[in-house]
Amino acid sequence: MESLVSELSSPLAVGQRAPQFTLADATGRQVSLGDYAGKNVVVYFYPKAATPGCTTEACDFRDNLNSLRAAGYEVLGISPDEGEALTSFTESESLNFPLLSDPDFAVASAYGSYGEKEFNGKKSSGTLRSTVVVDGDGLVSLAEYNVAAGGHVARLREELGI
Question: Out of 18, 31, 54, 133, which one is annotated catalytic?
Fold first, then answer.
């Protein structure tokens, strides 16, 4: 299994076809990348709902969603959290975009967003904070890995020319 995870966790490259996925949102509704065909989608991966960095990043997307949408971008957040945690996080932070549950890290792995990380001197494996922008044709137009939560959306908007 380790070699499979390593293979699946290769970063995506600009121009590559984005892996398709279907995941449950906070309410259990199935959401697919294909639901957004013809649209630009910001797919961002975060390690754990309601933690300081993840809250900063989610609120940053929330606060910038209108300008992102006005420029033709939708936002999907993906973490290994289950529905109840996603519901609580969505409600407590008034999030206005779908959060999706990837408990087995399959989508994170396919997007190169799964790997080893270190926190407070302890190493573990899990979802790495990253963002992949998928264009209306389903191709990767931007891929950023190991991003910092603070200021990420401003940097992303600058790179997208928004």
Answer: 54
Helix (H) or strand (E) holding 145: strand 140-145
Query: Is 45 within 8 Å of 79 (Cβ atoms)?
Result: yes
pLDDT digits (tens, 9 = 90+) for 126-141: 999 999 999 999 999 9
Tell me, yes or no, if 54 is annotated catalytic: yes
Closest CA to 76 of 48, 42, 102: 42
Contacts of 97-100 with CB under 8 Å at 24 or more apart are 97/61, 97/62, 97/65, 98/25, 98/26, 98/31, 99/25, 99/26, 99/49, 99/58, 100/23, 100/24, 100/25, 100/31, 100/76
Residue 50 reports pLDDT greater than 60: yes
Q: ∠ CA(147), CA(151), CA(156), 5° rounding?
A: 70
